[in-house]
Amino acid sequence: MRILQIFMAGLLVLSLSGCGYNKFQTADEQVTSSWSEVVNQYQRRADLVPNLVSVVKGIAAQEQAVFLGVANARAKVGSLQVTPELVNNPEAFAKFQAAQGELSSSLSRLLVVAENYPQLKSDANFRDLQAQLEGTENRITVARNRYIKDVQAYNVTVRSFPTNITAKIFGYQIKPNFTVENEKEISKPPTVNFDAAPSQPQSDAK
Hints:
Layout: H1 2-18, H2 21-59, H3 64-78, H4 90-114, H5 124-159, H6 163-170, H7 180-186
Helix pairs in contact: 2-3, 2-4, 2-5, 3-4
């Protein structure tokens, strides 16, 4: 009886391995790891926002509409419940993507406004924060690209035969991914060209 149990256990291990169960475990862990890095980099960006806005506001206080847009976008990002399970919820994932895209757009508008104030060119704090933001945007792009590739590999496994049978048995579902349109936007981190001739500063009399 003991030998039979060992034999059956061996068959079960070989069966799970052959049907892709172990592959799903590895792929799922890889997606989770990639997602954690995406979240970390987005959080790094969100942490930079208050100081960046504060420095710009000190010189361009009249740009209230832009500051309000950034504040609202950051608040929306902060209100999201970001957990590892979010990658299995298409609706929650879409909300996360939309909120981060809105913050990206508002930050781009903030930096465009900053170009109208040459005083910022000599502000060490602004230049440092702007450099940190650009570096973070680049890291976000790298993290997102890694996540996209890992999810694509996982989803192919879910759809392919015979691993699709294993997926149905163990409840592995297709995971949502970043859209192509949004990826084009995120691949263009906001920049401020301080080498170009500055435009005239806006009058305080506005």
